[in-house]
Design brief:
The chain is of the alpha/beta class. The chain has one domain: Aldolase class I (TIM Barrel). It is built from 11 helices and 12 strands. The protein has helices at residues 37-48, 77-92, 153-172, 187-192, 207-210, 212-224, 249-261, 288-297, 311-319, 330-334, 338-346; strands at residues 8-10, 13-15, 19-21, 53-60, 96-102, 130-132, 148-150, 177-182, 231-236, 266-270, 301-305, 325-328. Strand 9, helix 7 and strand 10 (266-270) form a beta-alpha-beta unit. It is globular, with a radius of gyration of 19 Å. The two termini are 19 Å apart. Bound molecules: flavin mononucleotide. Residues 22-25, 57-58, 100, 181, 183-184, 234, 270, 305-308, 328-331 line the site of flavin mononucleotide.
Amino acid sequence: MAELFTSLSLRDCEIPNRVAVSPMCQYSCDRDGLATEWHRVHLGSRAVGGAGIVMTEATAVSPRGRITPYDLGIWSDDHAAALEPIAEFVREQGTVPGIQLAHAGHKASKTRPWEGNVPIDADEENGWEVLSPSPEAYPPFDGDRPTMRKATPDDIQGVIDAYRAAAERALAAGFEIAEVHAAHGYLLHEFLSPVTNRREDDYGGSFENRSRLVREVTAAVRDVWPDDQPVFVRLSGTDWLDDRESWTIEESARLAADLSDLGGDLIDVSSGGLHPAQELSAGPNFQVPLAEELRERTDVAVGAVGGITEPEQADAIVRNDRADLVLVGREFLRDPYFGLRSSDALDGTREWPIQYRHAVR
Ligand SMILES: Cc1cc2nc3c(=O)[nH]c(=O)nc-3n(C[C@H](O)[C@H](O)[C@H](O)COP(=O)(O)O)c2cc1C
């Protein structure tokens, strides 16, 4: 039997196989953060397609935490109600529904990628003032700055409270895994990295201070998430900015251990996204060594993501103990049935939906 199709137990959650749909923004809400038919079909197809986990895209814990006006959100009970049938459908396929809880920080208030990722000013229609640990350190990837606000202590407490409330709603909506998004240059990563965090209060300076918000958010989510269900945290393992003081794999390992102590069950190891000067060389398995390193240095389970496109490649990552789980992004966009295709190629243990069996040899 292929290792990829062995189950993974985290707390009492039994994940049927180790290939997960990586969170991927769809920018497909009608400007109010409510899930649409697009989300139902997009996420539902990938559950039909045999993934062990279907993780939602970055789901904003507050309106200010959206990247664009069209992002998915979970800041009201109506948002949870719109997500509930999707989580239920995913579960009915034998797939575990997960939700990525996110705040975009100073990378917010932009047009969609296909509209150019252009910052929208706070006084323009659909724009808002974005939150940053240190506005002076904002490193724009694409030109202009949005209207910025340095996070006050009240703003910081508001973010923690918003994550807690979002997790409560996600639970009510039927999700079984909550993932805290602390990667890719969004708010929590902005606090972690000394490149974007120049604060001089309890949330800036030392590792302890820069990582305080991520720890507090994770603790708040864990506080309301049931003891028998897992919490994941997505980290950027490194900023890929070796030419300056920045977030490194050493600090990631230290944080992973802290998050594990706080009840985090799996670190989903991505990288970069913080600064345009990053020296990132993408390709097959390009972030797997980061996951492997965290797995070696800590006791926490890890997920590997990035450049994983082939069943045998995914299986080898798990078989060789490089990660406990693989997350697949773009290949799942190209082929929603990547899970079934992998199972067929490796050992055939994930059965096709009964409705489709006439098509299976
Ligand atoms: C269209 C698209 C949207 C994405 N949105 C998110 C997101 O919402 N949250 C996140 O953590 N990563 C996001 N990512 C990154 C993916 O989850 C994944 O880490 C990345 O694409 C690398 O994996 P891959 O090589 O399998 O695509 C996105 C990637 C793509 C292609």
